[in-house]
Amino acid sequence: MAKLISGKEVSARVKAEVKAECDRLKEKGITPGLAVIIVGNDPASRVYVNNKKKACAEVGFVSEEYALPESTTEEQLLELVDELNKKDTIHGILCQLPLPSHLDEKAVINAISPEKDVDAFHPSNVGKIMIGDYTFLPCTPAGVMEMIHFSGIEVSGKNCVVIGRSNIVGKPMAMLLLHENGTVTICHSRTKNLKEICSQADILVAAVGRPNFVTADMVKDGAVVLDVGINRLKSGKLCGDVDFEAVEKKASYITPVPGGVGPMTIAMLMKNTLSAAKAANGIE
Ligand code: NDP
Predict the structure, then answer these.
(1) Domain boundaries in the chain?
(2) Which CATH superfamily includes the segment(s) 28-113?
(3) Which atom of ligand 1 lies closest to the CA of 190?
C-alpha cells in the first residue's frame, strides 16, 4: 500500500517557513504584498482567489484584490497592471486565469513586470526556468517538487513520465524533473503506447484533467504517483486524474485529491511572493 504524501502537511510546513521569514522582514519594515486581479464571475476562479487571500492573511502578507467586471476592456486591465507594476507596496501580481474570451491572456501576462510575476508565466521567467537560473518557479510544478523532496524521494537517474504538456503544469514540471537529473518523458494526447510508457515510470505525474485517467495497469509496482488533476464529478465531488483506490495498492507513494497538490500550489505562491519582496528590497 502506498504512503500518502499529504499536501496539507507539506503546505503547512512551507507556509510556516514563509510566515517566519515574513515576520523577520516586518522587523525591517517590509511587508510582502500580493495583488490578485479577477475579471468576471467564474465561480471556480472566485474560490481560488479567496483561498489565495486567506493564505496571504495566514502568512502575514498584505493582499489586495482587484475584482473587475466581465465587461472590462483589455486597455483597462493593462492600465491596472501598469499601476501595480509601479506600486512599491506590491511585490507580486497575479491575474487569475482563465480570463473572459475577449481579453488576451498573453498580453496580460506579458505586461506583468517579470520581477512581480509570482505565477512565473512571463516569457522571461519561463526562459529562466529553461536555463535553470530562476527567481520564481511556477507554483504547481514547484509544489510537486516540494512534495518529492519532503518525502525523501530521489529523482536523479529515475524514469520520470509527465502526462500533459501545458505551459502551466506539464512543460515546467518536466523541466524541473530534468534539472534534478531525471530521465524525462512528456506524454500528451497524440502519444502512442501511453500505457507502455507510463508503466516504465519510477515517477509518474498526471496533469491531464480527466477523472480516473491513470489506471492501475499503467503504473509500475513501487512507482511514485503525483496527481495534479482537479476534476469535479457530476456528484460535486472533487477527484484527480488517478484511479486512487486501485493505484494506491501498487504505488510506493501517492498524492490524494483533494488535499494533495492543490494546497501546495498556493503555498508556493506565498513562497514566490516572499522571494519577490526580498528581491525588491535587495535581500538575498
Ligand atoms: P490542459 O488542459 O492545459 O492540459 C492537459 C494536457 O493533458 C494536455 O497537454 C493534453 O494533451 C493532455 N491530454 C489530454 N488528453 C489526453 C490523453 N487522452 N492522453 C494523454 N494526454 C492527454 O490542463 P492543465 O495542464 O492546465 O491542467 C491539468 C489538470 O491539472 C487539470 O485537471 C487542472 O484542473 C489541474 N490543475 C491543478 C492545479 C493544482 O493546483 N493542483 C493547478 C493547475 C492545474 P495535448 O497537449 O495534446 O492536448
Answers:
(1) 28-113, 139-262
(2) Leucine Dehydrogenase, chain A, domain 1 (3.40.50.10860)
(3) 47
